[in-house]
Structure formats: C-alpha cells, structure tokens
Amino acid sequence: MARNVEFDEQLAVSKAMDVFWKKGYNGTTMRDLTEAMGINSSSLYNTIGDKHELFVRSLKHYTESRMRAALKQLEPIKSPIKAIEKYIQSAAYVITNEADSCLAIKTTFEIASTDKQVQQIIKADNDFTYNLLISLVERAIEKGEIKVSQDAAMLTDYIINHFTGWHESFIIHKDKSRIKHMAAFLIKQISQ
C-alpha cells in the first residue's frame, strides 16, 4: 500500500516560491527547495514533479495571489482615478518594501524569453494588470477625471511601463523617496 504524502502542498509551494524569489530559477538547487519545504526529494518528485514544475506552480501562486490582492484592494474604491492612484501608490510601496523585488519581473528577465510555459504565466499576469488599469482609465476618461489624454490604451501602457523602471531604479539606488516622488509625479501627470 502506498504511503500518504504527509505535507501541505500549498504551503510547500509557497515555501518554494520564497526560495525562487530570493535566488532566481537558475540559482536555486533541488537541495535548497527540499530544505525550505521540509521534504525529501522523492516526496517532491512524487507529488509535485521536477524543479521546473515546482517553479511554474510557484510563479502561478505568486501571480494569482497578486491578482486577488489587487481586486480586493480596489473593489471598494468608487472613483476610477482614485483607484488608479491607489494602484500606483501600492506598486511604489511593493517595489520599495519587498526585499527581493518582483518575482514576475525577475523571472521575465531571467527565463521568460526562453521558456514558453513561464512566458505564458508572465503574459497572463501582465494582461491582468493591463485589463484592470485600462478599464479604470476608460472609466476615468468617461467621468472627466482624466483629461490629459483620451487614448486609454496609450495611457495604460504609459502607467505600466513606469513600474519596471521603478523596480530597476530601486534595485540600483535603494532610495525609497525617489520612487515615492516618481509615483507622486505620475499621479499628478495623469490627474491633470
């Protein structure tokens, strides 16, 4: 009779995600993963699969958690421009307070260009952000809360592209006030 697996898979994936987040996909060893997860390698292979499958599950866990958090945070905000402002402020906060930067951005530059499965997860994450923001931008334009541009797609791309630059800036300079000032300036630009 086969022995039952005696660990919480979701917790194990979450612990693996933390290791990948800190060390990156290529820098993480199977030993790093099994130690963090508190399991042996045969349990990992028998229940989850190999390192790549664990990474895919970890990345999905990360991106889906971010999506749920964004929806929950923005749902009670009635004004579209206020929701956009909150999203920008939250992005600046995450960039300056998450020690290992953004797992999705790190993954994009590490392996997404050569790994189609990972690329699909990153694209789904980016599409979610784009769709969330463009719906807010369109509503803000309709309500007259945004007058700076009537091109919702261009303005949405403009907002999203700031986030990657802020990640890079913070990794290099570790200057929270710099990111906060850039976020405030972006909000001022789109609120005109």
From TrEMBL:
Pfam families: TetR_C_13, TetR_N. This is Transcriptional regulator, TetR family. PANTHER family: TRANSCRIPTIONAL REGULATORY PROTEIN. Keywords: DNA-binding, Transcription, Transcription regulation. It comes from the Bacteria. Residues 29-48 bind DNA. It comes from Dyadobacter koreensis. Gene3D superfamilies: Homeodomain-like, Tetracycline Repressor, domain 2. GO terms for molecular function: DNA binding. InterPro entries: Homeodomain-like_sf, HTH_TetR, Tet_transcr_reg_TetR-rel_C_sf, TetR_C. Residues 6-66 form the HTH tetR-type domain.
